[in-house]
Amino acid sequence: MPGFTLTDSQQQALLQAARQAQRNAYAPYSNYPVGAAVLDAQGRIHAGCNVENAAYPEGLCAEAAALSAMVLAGGRQARAVLVVGSGGEGSWITPCGGCRQKLREFGAPDLIIQSANELTLGPRHTLAQLLPESFGPGHIKGS
Protein backbone atom coordinates (compact mmCIF):
# COMPACT_ATOMS: atom_id res chain seq x y z
CA MET A 1 0.00 0.00 0.00
CA PRO A 2 1.56 3.32 -1.03
CA GLY A 3 2.40 5.52 1.89
CA PHE A 4 2.35 2.75 4.50
CA THR A 5 4.00 3.91 7.72
CA LEU A 6 5.58 1.36 10.03
CA THR A 7 4.83 2.27 13.64
CA ASP A 8 7.38 1.94 16.43
CA SER A 9 5.33 -0.83 18.05
CA GLN A 10 5.11 -2.76 14.76
CA GLN A 11 8.86 -2.34 14.25
CA GLN A 12 9.57 -3.63 17.76
CA ALA A 13 7.24 -6.61 17.25
CA LEU A 14 8.99 -7.42 13.96
CA LEU A 15 12.38 -7.11 15.63
CA GLN A 16 11.37 -9.42 18.47
CA ALA A 17 9.95 -12.02 16.07
CA ALA A 18 13.00 -11.88 13.78
CA ARG A 19 15.43 -12.21 16.68
CA GLN A 20 13.51 -15.19 18.05
CA ALA A 21 13.55 -16.80 14.61
CA GLN A 22 17.29 -16.15 14.33
CA ARG A 23 17.84 -18.07 17.57
CA ASN A 24 16.15 -21.08 15.93
CA ALA A 25 18.11 -20.92 12.68
CA TYR A 26 19.87 -24.04 11.42
CA ALA A 27 23.21 -22.76 10.10
CA PRO A 28 25.88 -25.43 10.74
CA TYR A 29 27.81 -24.64 7.54
CA SER A 30 27.94 -20.85 7.39
CA ASN A 31 27.57 -20.28 11.13
CA TYR A 32 25.53 -17.23 10.11
CA PRO A 33 22.04 -17.50 11.59
CA VAL A 34 19.45 -15.19 10.07
CA GLY A 35 15.95 -14.37 11.21
CA ALA A 36 13.26 -12.52 9.30
CA ALA A 37 9.78 -11.29 10.07
CA VAL A 38 7.10 -10.10 7.64
CA LEU A 39 4.20 -7.82 8.53
CA ASP A 40 1.22 -8.61 6.30
CA ALA A 41 -1.68 -6.41 5.21
CA GLN A 42 -3.82 -7.74 8.08
CA GLY A 43 -1.24 -6.62 10.63
CA ARG A 44 -0.04 -10.16 11.39
CA ILE A 45 3.62 -11.01 11.80
CA HIS A 46 5.15 -14.12 10.24
CA ALA A 47 8.69 -15.19 11.08
CA GLY A 48 11.23 -17.45 9.45
CA CYS A 49 14.86 -18.51 9.83
CA ASN A 50 17.51 -19.78 7.49
CA VAL A 51 17.74 -23.55 7.20
CA GLU A 52 20.96 -24.73 5.61
CA ASN A 53 21.57 -28.01 3.85
CA ALA A 54 24.76 -29.91 3.06
CA ALA A 55 23.75 -29.53 -0.60
CA TYR A 56 24.03 -25.71 -0.47
CA PRO A 57 21.48 -24.78 -3.12
CA GLU A 58 18.84 -26.70 -1.21
CA GLY A 59 18.94 -24.38 1.81
CA LEU A 60 16.22 -21.90 2.66
CA CYS A 61 16.69 -18.21 3.41
CA ALA A 62 14.95 -16.64 6.39
CA GLU A 63 12.98 -14.24 4.19
CA ALA A 64 11.66 -17.10 2.05
CA ALA A 65 10.66 -19.01 5.18
CA ALA A 66 8.82 -15.96 6.57
CA LEU A 67 7.00 -15.45 3.27
CA SER A 68 6.00 -19.12 3.26
CA ALA A 69 4.59 -18.72 6.77
CA MET A 70 2.64 -15.66 5.60
CA VAL A 71 1.17 -17.52 2.63
CA LEU A 72 0.32 -20.52 4.80
CA ALA A 73 -1.63 -18.18 7.10
CA GLY A 74 -3.55 -16.76 4.12
CA GLY A 75 -1.53 -13.57 3.66
CA ARG A 76 -0.82 -12.31 0.17
CA GLN A 77 0.60 -8.83 0.74
CA ALA A 78 3.71 -7.89 2.70
CA ARG A 79 3.88 -4.37 4.12
CA ALA A 80 7.22 -4.53 5.95
CA VAL A 81 10.10 -6.94 6.45
CA LEU A 82 12.76 -6.96 9.14
CA VAL A 83 15.91 -9.07 8.68
CA VAL A 84 18.35 -9.82 11.52
CA GLY A 85 21.90 -11.01 10.99
CA SER A 86 25.03 -11.02 13.13
CA GLY A 87 28.24 -9.10 13.17
CA GLY A 88 27.85 -6.16 15.49
CA GLU A 89 27.65 -2.45 14.82
CA GLY A 90 27.91 -1.51 11.17
CA SER A 91 27.34 -5.04 9.90
CA TRP A 92 23.97 -5.00 8.20
CA ILE A 93 22.20 -7.74 6.32
CA THR A 94 19.82 -7.20 3.44
CA PRO A 95 17.91 -9.86 1.50
CA CYS A 96 19.86 -11.72 -1.18
CA GLY A 97 18.90 -11.24 -4.83
CA GLY A 98 16.64 -14.27 -4.89
CA CYS A 99 14.80 -13.14 -1.77
CA ARG A 100 14.42 -9.64 -3.15
CA GLN A 101 12.56 -11.16 -6.08
CA LYS A 102 10.49 -13.35 -3.75
CA LEU A 103 9.59 -10.26 -1.72
CA ARG A 104 8.57 -8.51 -4.96
CA GLU A 105 5.96 -11.20 -5.54
CA PHE A 106 4.15 -10.14 -2.36
CA GLY A 107 5.31 -6.55 -1.91
CA ALA A 108 5.07 -3.28 -3.78
CA PRO A 109 8.17 -1.31 -4.72
CA ASP A 110 7.68 0.78 -1.54
CA LEU A 111 7.81 -2.31 0.70
CA ILE A 112 9.80 -1.40 3.82
CA ILE A 113 12.88 -3.56 4.44
CA GLN A 114 14.53 -2.92 7.80
CA SER A 115 17.96 -4.33 8.64
CA ALA A 116 19.12 -5.19 12.15
CA ASN A 117 21.78 -7.13 14.01
CA GLU A 118 22.09 -8.50 17.53
CA LEU A 119 22.71 -5.01 18.92
CA THR A 120 20.52 -2.51 17.14
CA LEU A 121 18.42 -1.53 14.17
CA GLY A 122 20.26 -0.66 10.98
CA PRO A 123 19.35 1.07 7.77
CA ARG A 124 15.88 0.98 6.25
CA HIS A 125 15.36 0.58 2.51
CA THR A 126 12.45 0.17 0.15
CA LEU A 127 12.27 -2.80 -2.14
CA ALA A 128 12.66 -0.41 -5.09
CA GLN A 129 16.02 0.72 -3.66
CA LEU A 130 17.22 -2.87 -3.33
CA LEU A 131 15.62 -4.18 -6.53
CA PRO A 132 15.25 -1.27 -8.95
CA GLU A 133 13.16 -1.62 -12.11
CA SER A 134 11.89 -4.95 -10.83
CA PHE A 135 9.77 -7.51 -12.64
CA GLY A 136 6.62 -8.31 -10.68
CA PRO A 137 3.19 -9.89 -10.90
CA GLY A 138 1.76 -6.88 -12.74
CA HIS A 139 3.97 -7.63 -15.72
CA ILE A 140 2.26 -10.98 -16.19
CA LYS A 141 -1.29 -10.12 -15.17
CA GLY A 142 -1.29 -6.97 -17.24
CA SER A 143 -2.29 -4.81 -14.29
Structure commentary:
By secondary structure, the protein is of the alpha+beta class. About 30% of the residues lie in helices and about 20% in strands. The protein has five helices and five strands. Strands 2-1-3-4-5 form a five-stranded mixed beta sheet. Strand 4 and strand 5 form a beta hairpin. The longest helix has 16 residues, at about 10-25. It is globular, with a radius of gyration of 14 Å.
- What is the number of beta strands? 5
Q: Ranges with pLDDT <50 over ≥5 residues? A: none
List the helices and strands in order: HEEHEHEEHH
Rg over CA atoms: 14 Å
Query: Which sheet architecture does the biggest sheet show?
Result: 5 strands, mixed
What do the pLDDT scores average to? 94
Helix content: 25-40%
State the helix count: 5
- Label the structural class: alpha+beta
Distance between the first and last residues' Cα: 15 Å
Layout of helices and strands, plus pairs?
Layout: H1 8-23, E1 35-40, E2 45-49, H2 62-72, E3 78-84, H3 97-106, E4 112-116, E5 121-126, H4 127-130, H5 137-141
Parallel strand pairs: 3-4
Antiparallel strand pairs: 1-2, 1-3, 4-5
